[in-house]
Amino acid sequence: MSNREKIVVLEKDMEIQKNYIKQIKEYIGKSKKIPTACVQTFGCAQNENDSEKLKGMLLSMGYELGNEPEKSDLILYNTCAVRAGAEDRVFGNLGALKHLKRKKEDLLIGICGCMIQEEQVVERLKSKYKHVDMVFGTHTLHKFPQILYETLEQQHRVIAVEDSDGYLVEGIPQKREDPYKAGVSIMYGCNNFCSYCIVPYVRGRERSRDKEDILRECAQLVQDGYREITLLGQNVNSYGNDLDSGIDFADLLGEINRIEGIKRIKFMTSHPKDISDKLIETMAECENVCEYLHLPFQAGNNRVLQRMNRKYTKEHYLSIIDKVKKAMPNITLTSDVIVGFPGETNEEFLDTLDVIRQVEFDSLYTFIFSPREGTPAAKMEDVLSREEKQKNFQTLVDLQNQISKKKNDAYVGKTVAILVDGVSKNNPEMMAGRTEGNKIVNFEAKTAKPGQIVPVKITKAQTWALIGEEV
Ligand code: SF4
Questions:
Q1: Which pTM value belongs to this model?
Q2: Cα–Cα distances in Å, from 398 out to 32, 403, 405?
């Protein structure tokens, strides 16, 4: 059997799940009241996407969706494993549900997602969180209807965790959260094993969806009125490496760009080692691909990058940025940075500041290193104290704030296309939307309605947002 055949979940297996959906719907149909389910998401865009699938399945089973755990009949936590802090929050929240379960005996509590792929988490749930009814990991998400059916039918807890390299599943119903912006997973898993990251251990190996399935989903979204599609994957640049078709990410982007009526295409996340010249050219040529690139560099020093197992150097990263800027002079650039990676010295940290000065990112997602149990970096030795790391972090934030303000100042007087989200959160008299590069713009509207792409003249710049008026 080829590897592809091993990872694809067959239609007949999905039929079994559809049958469980039908049986739960019948079961619910016999009760007097429509039950409410509340799905809470902790984590990244992929997790959000998985939660939309969980909600889609729940709606097909006859549940109503709500946001208040206290008023729900089923509470489901879709968890993230990237940061230890997020895990502590999940355990805290789960603990607090104990008293709710005591008050409401037929309440069902489930937990799923990346955390569940960690053995010690499942052990802790088994021994200390006996009020949790359903425990399932990322590789068994598509079996949620069966898991829920067995929990309801047999009235005992179901634990469904598979230690595998992951599957490719098509045909799960999805309840989209936003009416104009949609995420489309193009691949799952990661092969990179950056030394600080838990993702390859909990999301399996890289597996690309078939091009036809992706194109079909994107075309349907456009037909349904979606304006912006974000292609999702842990490392979208290696899309197609596991396919025999010879298609790569640049080819896929080109084909999606040709879908009739598509307005904005974005993608995340990219790995610098896999960005090709072909991809940069394709981005520049395709009129519907946004001039926006989120390219995590993580650290500026080559010794630190090597310890991170990032497989590129500072010089290589800067050369990519150079090409990107030449091909798209107006591009919006963002990145992720880790401060205080084990072994990083104050001198090595200066290389990180140097990259920030040279590239001039529009904004940065910055983190002080926090170890994840089970990764090589968790066993590496630190040389800096917490205070020194905090000081470096603040230096970096101050520098980036100056650059962000300078980059935003350059927008004043320009007219930019804004995808309207709705009324501004800061000022109910104004509307808010996003530029191609994801910058927030609060503006005085004339005729603009949510979901429209309208021209807005920028009149004022702040560090985190732009102010303007519709023209
Ligand atoms: S590329 Fe590195 S940081 Fe990103 S998901 Fe893969 S292992 Fe984690």
A1: 0.94
A2: 58, 9, 11
